[in-house]
Amino acid sequence: MNSMIKCIATDMDGTLLDSVSKKITSENRQAIVDAQAQGIEVVISTGRSYEEVNYLLAEAKIECPLILVNGAETRSKDGKISSTNPLTKGQVLEVAKVLSDNGIYFEVYTDQGKFTHDREKSVEVILNIVASANDEANVEEAKKYARERAKRIKEIASYDQLFDNKVYKFLVFSFDDNQLAQAAKSLEGVADIAVSSSGHGNMEITHIHAQKGIALERFVASRGISLEETMAVGDSYNDVSMFERVGRAVAMGNADDLIKEKCDFVTAPNDESGVAKAIWEVLKLERV
User: Fold this and answer.
1) Which residues are registered as beta bridge partners of 17?
2) Average pLDDT, stretch 94-108?
3) Do 98 and 186 touch, CB atoms closer than 8 A?
C-alpha cells in the first residue's frame, strides 16, 4: 500500500450486519472502535434510511457519519443532514408508472421516512426472498426481522400522496428474477437515474448523483482525505461506485464473484465478521 488508510467506508446489509439477526457483530463493533481510536474516519455507507440505521448504531454504541439511501442523504455523526440528492418530480412520476405498469411491489424512501402501500406485502416479500436465497435460513429469525422491518415503514393508501415530498429512492422487491429484469429494462427510458441492487431479489432506483461512490468522494474531500487513502468494504452492486474510486476496495466473502473481481481484496463473509478482519488487517499494516 502506497499510503495509509485514513477513511474506512462500510456497507451494512450483507457486510457489517450478520445475515440472521441483522445486527452489528461484536467483532465488527470493536474493529470500528479500534479504527476510530487510531484517528481513522469510519463512515457507514448504506442503502438504508436514517431510521433504519440509527437504532442499530445506538444499540452497538457506535457514532460515525452516515451516507444513507445510497448517497441520496448524508448526515453528520450527530444525525444532522449535510446534503441531499433527491429524484426530480418528473423522475418520480415516471419511475412510479413504470413499476406500477410492471405490477411489481416497491417501497418509497422520502425525507419524511419510508413508505409502503401494503405492510403485510412487505413482510411477505422479505420472507419469500430470504427463503429463495437461503435454504437453511432460520425461518423464525427471518419472520422476526421481516416484522421488525415492517414496523419501521409507514403505511399509506396511495403513493401519490408522497410525490410532492423529497423522494430519495424506490426500493423494488421480487423473488422472480425475470420480473426484476423486465422492470429494469423498462426503466432504461427514464433519464438520469441510477439503478442498482443491494442484494438478492431487490432493485434500487435513485437519482444519478445519489450513488455511494459519489457521496463518499464528496465526504473524504470535505475531510481533507484522498480517495487513495480510503478503504471501502461491501458485498453488492450498489457498492461498486465506491470500489471504483477508492485506493483499497474490499469485497465480502459472501459477495458475488463479479463483485469480488472488482475489488483488490476479499475478506471473510459477513457471518464471520469480515469487516473486522479487513479493518484489523489495515491497522496491522499501518503499524508496520
Assistant:
1) 24
2) 94
3) yes
Task: Calculate ∠ Cα 156-162-163, nearest 5°.
Answer: 145
What's the total number of domains in the chain? Answer: 2
Helix or strand holding residue 53 (H, E): helix 50-60
Host H or E run for residue 36: helix 26-37
288 has a pLDDT exceeding 80: no
Question: Which residue range(s) make up the domain with 148?
Answer: 89-207
Three cell numbers written together for 120: 403485510
Q: Which residues are catalytic?
A: 11
Residue 278 lies in a domain: yes
d(CA 53, CA 70) in angstroms, rounded, equals: 13
- Distance, in Å, from the CA atom of 74 to the CA atom of 44, rounded to the nearest integer, reads 10
Query: With contact defined as beta carbons under 8 Å apart, do 172 and 204 qualify?
Result: yes
Residue-wise pLDDT tens digits, 119-138: 888 888 878 776 666 656 56
Distance of alpha carbon 96 from alpha carbon 88, whole angstroms: 12
Q: Kindly report the CATH number assigned to the domain that includes residue 40.
A: 3.40.50.1000
Write down which residue in 179, 207, 235 finishes a domain.
207
Q: Is the pLDDT of residue 200 over 90?
A: no
